Structures are given as structure tokens and as C-alpha cells.
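Predict the holo structure. Ligand: 3-hydroxy-3-methylglutaryl-coenzyme A.
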Amino acid sequence: MSKTITGFSKFSKGEKINWLANNFFSDKEQGIKTIHQYWNSNEKLQQIHDEFIENTISNFYIPYAIAPNFIINNKPYTIPMAVEESSVVAAASLVAKFWGTRGGFKAEVLSTVKIGQVHFMYEGDFTDLEDYFNSVKTKLISSTNSITQNMRKRGGGILDIELRDKTTELDNYFQLHVTFETMDSMGANFINSCLETIANAFKKEDIQIIMSILSNYVPECLVRAEVSCKVEDFFDINPKHFAEKFIQAVNIANAEPHRAVTHNKGIMNGIDAVVLATGNDFRAVEAGAHAYASKSGRYKSLTNAKVENGIFTFWIEIPLALGTVGGLTKLHPLAKLSLDILQNPSAKELMQIVAVAGLAQNFAALKALTTTGIQQGHMKMHLMNILNQLEANLHEKKVITDKFQGKTVSYNDIAAALHEMRI
Ligand code: HMG
């Protein structure tokens, strides 16, 4: 048996599983059973999933859940979330209710510009390069006409091409910095196809094209979401004190990168869950969001909070390149259903919804952190995972859940209580 292989991609699915089982599974029978258990019994549906990626052998489930009661720009939304971490959906739902009684969320898209770049090396005179670029700029744009035709009809396309001198960062390095409007699509394939065509049209002897690719850093594809209320409406007890503590928690994230990373992780709990549920690219969104959090030169919070004239305001500004057409959005049946639940939003509307999910998540975490602590609620939601890990039956789950109602639980407490029940 060999642990490396040539031609694996040409194997049938069954052959791939057998090779894996023979070489890696500690319990061959159980391993194969687990893989089969997660196949969809609907062969056509399974085939769609098989063909999303390469060398597929099974499906990896992530729970798909619903956070109801969001009011965004006075419109009610029920938000689908795909996430494996307990308490995220409960927190989103709790915050939706909380702000629903305080005017809801307000969101606005600030800009929708996407970016792609042709990176190249050039050793000659910059003025000659500039002259050449200016002489071919129109041709570069028209070379993409067949690709951009439909996008232009929808109101999008290439916005501009700029020649950028990057030689202070790297010797001989220049780029064509291209901006795009991709309307309701995320636009990755469209942008990359345009860039490769532009690069071909730009080629000449003294220009060495290195690569052409979109950028996932989209600081001009930006959305802002906020909540606000009178300070006295913030909490029932001592609202001024809690508003101050809440703002200090945000200030700490702005002052201290270790805290900022965790703070922003909490935001991404909500963002990624909706991005994933709607079939969008969460890695692209993650990379862009963290780059944006570092735009000042230091990694900071993606949210901000203030009290001004007796009004508490909490807001997020985040770059989000999302699509509601193309990619997986219509191909994955659950992504399609998610968009249906969201009342088939435009990409701009989806940007607002996703930003709100991030803001809500951060609000829940900061509210818990600055009041009860995070463990009480988190462990309350995590209780079922612990009980499943300890293989509790339905009766045991009911008794233990009742016993620990309102208490901060730990794995050891649950294990001890279960052990007591079983002797
Ligand atoms: P609670 O007040 O104990 O909840 O909060 P409740 O039982 O009184 O129920 C109130 C509402 O909460 C419910 O209303 C639901 O909306 C929601 P209802 O539906 O009854 O009309 N809710 C639930 N929804 C669905 N399923 C449930 C459920 N339970 C309550 N089982 C809660 C409990 C966990 C919501 C609260 O303590 C909380 O928000 N905690 C914060 C949790 C959190 O932020 N989790 C994220 C993961 S932790 C993390 O990774 C990020 C972090 O490190 C980030 C950072 O440091 O900034 C913390």
C-alpha cells in the first residue's frame, strides 16, 4: 500500500473511497459507512454536490438555521444562517428582537466598486509606458466588448483602467488597476476574464505580464449598518453605565489588536453564516474584511460605538463583495432557498442584510461580555453538544437541561450529573 498516488482524479468515486479506506481509515468498515451515511439519497442532488468540487467522496454537513425578527430599513427579514457554532443563531435572534423594539437596524450601501489588476514588469522609461498606455486604453476596454456586453446591458461593466507605478514597493513593478461594477453578481469570473483579455491586448515586447486577477480587497464595495436608541432605552437597569461599558469594550478592540481579532471573529460569526447560507464566497469576504480592519496600519475593530446628545449609536462599516446571481447562488438548492427566504434581494440589499448580521452578532457578544460574561449563554446553548458527546438519551437530556436551567454549565458539571443519574 502506498500513501501517495498518481491518477487519483481519474478514479471513480468508489475507487477513491477504497483507496482512502485501504490506506488511511483506522476502522475501514466504519469509515466507509460514515462516508455513505452523508450521501444524499437523491442521486441527482448528490451529483450536483459531487460536481461543485473535485475528488468529492461525501458531503460535510453544517447546520442550517433561521434567525427571525430582523427589521432592516423598516422591512422585516428572517435570516438564514449556516454555522456550526452553538449560540450564534440564538444570539442573532435575541438581538433582532432587542433592536426590533428600538427602531430596528438601518443599513446603506456606500459604494459597489470591485477591483482587478494586471500585474506586470517593465524596465524602460516610465513616460514611454504612460504614452503607450494612453494610446491603447480605449482598445483595452473595447477588447473586452464580447465579455462585457451583457453586464453593460444590466448597467455594469468596466468603470476605468489606471496605470499604476508600484516601483517604490518592488523594482520594475507596474499594474493596470481596473475597476468594475458587477451589479447583482459577485463578478469573480467576469472580472478575471476581462483582466486576461486586457492583459493580452496590453502585451508588448518590453512588458512582461506576470498575472491578471481580481482583488478580494474591496474597500470601495462598502456597506454601513447601524442601530441607535436613547441611552435610557439601552437597558432596564443602569443603562448609562452599561452604554459606557459597551463603548469601552469597542474602544479596547480599537486599541488592542489581540482583542480586535476576537472582537472581529465574533462579527464574522454572523457575516460568514449568512454569506455561506446564500452560496457566497466566505473566504473572499473574510480576507477583505480583515484587510479593511487593518486599513489604518493597525488591526482594529470593524464596529464602532458612541453616545452623543443622549443617543447610543453602534455601527459597522465593512467591505462585502456579494452576489445574488451566478456562482452557487442558484445552483445550490439551499442557497437558492436562502435567497427566497430573504425575499430575493439584490446584491446591494444582501450586503445590508449581511452587515446587519455581523453587527447583531457583535452586539450580542459585547452585551454578554460586559454584563453576565460570555460563558453563561454560550454554555447554555452548548449544553446539547455536551450531552450528545456523553451519549445522553432523551430522558437524560430533559432532566439535565431542567437541572441546569439559568446556571453557567461546564463539561465536568454535566458529566458528573449524568454519572449520578446513571448509577
Ligand atoms: P437568553 O437571554 O438566556 O435567552 O440569551 P432566552 O432563553 O431568554 O431567550 C430570549 C431570546 O433569545 C429568544 O426569544 C430567542 O430569540 C433567543 P424567543 O425565541 O423565545 O422569542 N434564543 C434562542 N433562539 C434559538 N434557539 C435557542 C435560543 N435561546 C435563546 N435555543 C443567548 C441566551 C445565548 C442568546 C445570550 O446569552 C447571548 O446572546 N450570548 C452571547 C452569545 C454569543 O455571542 N455567541 C457567539 C459565540 S461566542 C464567540 O465565538 C465570539 C466571542 O468571542 C466574540 C467576542 O469576544 O467579541 C464572544
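The domain at 66-109+223-371 is CATH 3.90.770.10 (3-hydroxy-3-methylglutaryl-coenzyme A Reductase; Chain A, domain 2). Strands lie at 64-72, 75-82, 106-109, 114-122, 157-165, 173-181, 207-215, 222-230, 303-308, 311-319.
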